[in-house]
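User: Run a structure prediction on this.
Assistant: Running it now.
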Amino acid sequence: MQLRFLFTAIFILMMQAPRAQEPPLRVALAGISHGHSGWILGRTGKTDVIVAGIWEPDTALAAKAQRQYKLPASLFHTSLPAMLDALKPDAVLAFGSVYAHLEVTEAAAPRGIHVMVEKPLAANLAHARKMESLARKHRIHLLTNYETSWYPSVHTSLRLAADSNLAGAIRMARFNHGHQGPKEIGCGPEFLAWLTDPVLNGAGALNDFGCYGANIMTALMRDKAPVSVSAVIQASWNWTFNRKDMELYGDKTSFSAPDAATLITRGPNGRPQERSVTAKEAQVYTDPFVYLAAVVQGRETVAPWSLYSLENNVMVVRILEAAKISAKTGKSVRP
């Protein structure tokens, strides 16, 4: 009897013991010419994600980053495959041109290394299909990072809009994304060199900012492809201010997210109800690298058709590709 009680006590203590802290996620950077590379290079004072190596083919840019962020020279590599073989990181972060996303995936996927790219997934549909095939074949996570996927207001809007009892049927959606222009907001020359290139970026402001609305709408509609795509997209490098806002209109309730933390709802009476939304309420990761670590370490599951997911972001490129054709032909295009 005493032995049984002792066993029971030990079992209870084991059940109540705190979970061991996860080891840091070791990442390698594949290119740093994207202006968003500062998000990880400047992420100081945190030990949950560690930059194990950096591959940047532009040696002048690499030297500049080394000085700016006070990084050791040993962190930089001249060959992407050699860096991956030597370091065996948990994941690769692609901060080069959108066109280079395929090259990064081709290097990482066969080595079983997970990949997170900056939005959009790919510069064109052919690249997106190849990347999807590589990710499926080698069973890696291939995530696409959008700033709006960190927004509590976006996640809450999607959740509420999916409730037909509250929203009714969604009749219209409007997405306004962009800024004054890449040169006007001070993007560096290494970023401008490919951001304004129709091949390396894919389609200027259309790819750079049109992808946000396509991403959010795909998350809302899940596995439903658009009936058609017309090139009337309010994504621009000519706004008078920086904006990432959206409006979803149901036949019962509308939802407006003018910024990351504000949600405005309107019912049939049209009177707005505005409130702040916290990350805790929305259950959203506000740091993409924390989310990446949770996914790679098995603490978080990427829901099908969710904002970061591969299914969603292949569809985004399909929509963008159709929009490019529509812009050239002046006709609606089925994606």
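The mean pLDDT is 92.
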